[in-house]
């Protein structure tokens, strides 16, 4: 079952493929579904497919920091 909010077939396939890969490698015992969902959601966020897109720390200027 892909993460909530995923409506496209492309992301559903991606989720299944990532989940299969994680299970095959034996990583993330007991958290495989969670990790696969996080990877798919991260990709969706980067591609602008979510309702609100997070700003990455790379895109911000450093003017908000205090001078030392």
Characterization of this structure:
This protein is mostly helical and 68 residues long. The protein has one domain. Helix content is 49%, strand content 0%. The protein has two helices and no strands. Helix 1 (9-25) packs across helix 2 (32-47). The longest helix is centred in the first third of the chain and has 17 residues, at 9-25.
Q: What is this structure, in a nutshell?
A:
The chain is mostly helical and 68 residues long. The chain contains 2 helices and no strands. It has one domain.
Number of helices: 2
Can you tell me the overall shape?
A: flat
Mean pLDDT: 84
pLDDT < 50 runs, ≥5 residues: none
Radius of gyration: 16 Å
Q: What is the ordering of alpha helices and beta strands? A: HH
Topology:
Blueprint: H1 9-25, H2 32-47
What features would you highlight for this structure?
single chain; 68 residues; mainly alpha; 2 helices
């Amino acid at each position: 079952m892909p993460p909530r909010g995923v409506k496209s077939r492309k992301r559903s396939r991606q989720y299944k493929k990532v989940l299969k890969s994680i299970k095959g490698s034996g990583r993330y015992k007991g958290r495989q579904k969670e990790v696969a969902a996080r990877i798919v959601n991260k990709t969706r966020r980067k591609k602008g497919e979510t309702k609100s897109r997070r700003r990455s720390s790379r895109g911000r200027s450093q003017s908000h920091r205090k001078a030392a």
